[in-house]
Each structure stands twice: as structure tokens, then as C-alpha cells.
Amino acid sequence: MLKTGDTLFHEGDERERIFVVESGWLKLSRTLSEGQRQIVGFPTRGAILGFEGPLDHVNHCEALTATVVHAFPVSALIQLCHDPRFGGTLLRQLGMQLGAAQTQLTSLGAQSAAQRTAAFLIFIADSCFDDEREFTLPMRRIDVAEFLGLRLETVSRMFGSFQQRGWISMQALYQCRITNRRALAALASGSRTMKSFPLPSRRIAANEY
């Protein structure tokens, strides 16, 4: 059990265990060549950590919320992989994580700020299994900005614009409710742009989600 702010492993630590997240949110970051820190991911339930490097951890991992993590020695994991059920699950999860990382890498250079922010909100909503419409952002907005490769002011402006259009409702600084998922999804996919959406003149109906 990790408390908020606890470190699971440090960048450069020898990789002795593989970790599976049962609940909660973590933050992965690494040191760039210029000495700056870059956030590279927000693992949550189902994520498998420890395969990022061949021998040592290439990221720093800390808990954003109270988090339950299961640790498996690397030697035990090798034995578990002989079980086809476990092996299949492991491959699927690793494939999903690799795909998400590649999508994030592509988006940093190809997507607009609005696209990145919309895609991020959908990702967080889909990761909150209890209620995919309403959720609490587990990270600060400065963390979101760093992860998306945007300025803090840009992320705040995107949140405000989405709320003005009735796509999201911010009940508090970190409490978000998606009220028009179709608009966010269209924006995130690139099939629509912000300019193609007129400012709403009425309240968004709940069934537009």
C-alpha cells in the first residue's frame, strides 16, 4: 500500500521486481539529457510496471493517490509466464501500454493543444471504472501540461473552453464531468476542429454523451 507521494522505485534502481497496479494512480517521470524532468505516464489499475528497461528502471515512479501495488520477483514472473492464461493476459496488457505510449509520442508532434487535451480527458474517464462520466483528476494541471507537452496556461484555457461549450463540467478544480463525449471524441480523433463547433446557445442534454 502506497500513500500519496510515496516512491515505488527510483530512476536507475536495479530492476528486481515487476509491479502490477491493483488500484490508485501513479506518476512516471524521467530525467532528460538537459537535466529536466519529463512526465511520461500515469499508470492506474491493471498497469504493469518494470519492463521499461532491460536491467534498471528508466523511470521514477511515485504515487499520486493511495495505491495498491503487487510486486513479483522477476524470477517468479518467468515461471508464471509458462501458464498460458497468465502469459496471454500479460501480453495483452503490455500491448495496450505500448500502443498508448506510441499514441502519446505521435500526438506530441501531430495534434493540436485541443486534441491532446480532449484525448487526455477521455483517457482519464475511461480509466475510472466506477463512473466514466464523472471523475476526479488524480494529477495537478501542471502535471497534465508537462505530460501533454503544453503550457499550464494552455491546459487551463482548454479546460475553460470545453466547459464554455458544454462538453465538460468542472464541479471543483479537480472534479470533472464529461457532458458531451461525442464532441470530445471527434476533436481528439481529428475529425473535427474547435472552429467547426459553434458556441452552444443552450445547455447540453444528458443524452448527448
Radius of gyration: 18 Å
The total of beta strands comes to 10
User: How many domains in all?
Assistant: 2
What is the third-level CATH name, the topology of the largest domain? Answer: Jelly Rolls
Adjacency order of strands in the biggest sheet: 1-6-3-4
CATH superfamily of the largest domain: Jelly Rolls
- Per CATH, the architecture of the largest domain is Sandwich
Distance between the termini: 35 Å
Q: Briefly, what CATH class of the largest domain?
A: Mainly Beta
Please work out how many helical segments DSSP would assign.
6
What's the helical proportion of residues?
25-40%
Silhouette: elongated
Quote the average pLDDT.
83
Report on the biggest sheet. Answer: 4 strands, antiparallel
Q: Helix/strand-derived class?
A: alpha+beta
How much strand content do the residues show? 15-25%
Unreliable segments of 5+ consecutive residues: 204-209
Helix and strand pattern:
EEEEEEEHHHEHHEEH
